[in-house]
Amino acid sequence: MKKDILIIEDDPKIRRYLELELIHEGYNVKLAENGKVGLELFREKSYSLILLDLMLPLMDGEEVCKTIRKESNIPIIVLTAKDEIFSKIALLDLGADDYITKPFIIGELLARMRVIFRNKQSVVDKKILKFGEISLNLTTKEVELNGVTVILTKTEYNLLHYLMVNKNLVLTRENILENVWGYDYFGDGKIIDMYIKSLRKKLDSENRYIKTIRGFGYSLKKED
Q: Which of 75, 109, 124 is where one domain is finished?
């Protein structure tokens, strides 16, 4: 079954280019030239993914992204210009699943779309991750310890998720920073220690699971 893609982009050349390329790849495509029309089309039917420009007339892409995310978990890839100052973390906080910088190679965009579709299917196939007494629901974003709901911040949740999908592996600080905080995070790596400490306090007070691997990083594994 063909996937339906909504493109919200005000530049007619880019809009037409994306339309032709995606149709050639076998996608169904719907176009919107501004944020207001984009929201209207989004609410008319179900799409598999949205390509969203940030600089839009009538309603900017930030507002469109936040509004859509309140109503749906549909994947969103943001299209940004090189001179737009947005970190990956800021875009993810808006609700985007990924971003790509203009000008871009269509092959890279298609690859990013395929990754999102694979991840989405993985969520459908496996909605709950479990490790010991900890369970993480990928659909509701809820975390439980021994059946009791534990409230995590978004970053705590993302860190736990990364540890769980890579259980029993030693994850370096570089691995964790790149995959949880993003490639363009330039802050102090000690922030990882702070969040690990918070996760331990909430989920692993006896340090049974979240192990410090001295000189390397951290690992989620059960005691031998």
A: 124
Q: Give the pLDDT of residue 117.
A: 87
Q: Which residues pair with 177 in a beta bridge?
A: none
- Domain with 89, as residue range(s), is 4-124
The CATH number assigned to the domain holding 166 equals 1.10.10.10
Cβ–Cβ under 8 Å, residues 163 and 218: yes
**Residue 83 pLDDT:** 57
User: CB burial class (10 A; 0-12, 13-18, 19+) of residue 217?
Assistant: buried
Q: Give residue 108's pLDDT.
A: 92
Instruction: Give the predicted TM-score (pTM) of the model.
Output: 0.56
What CATH number did the domain enclosing 84 receive?
3.40.50.2300
**Which residues neighbour 182 within 8 Å (Cβ) at sequence distance 6 or greater?**
87, 88, 89, 92
pLDDT < 50: residue spans in the chain: none
- The CA distance from 219 to 209, in Å, is 8
Structure tokens at 124: 């459908």
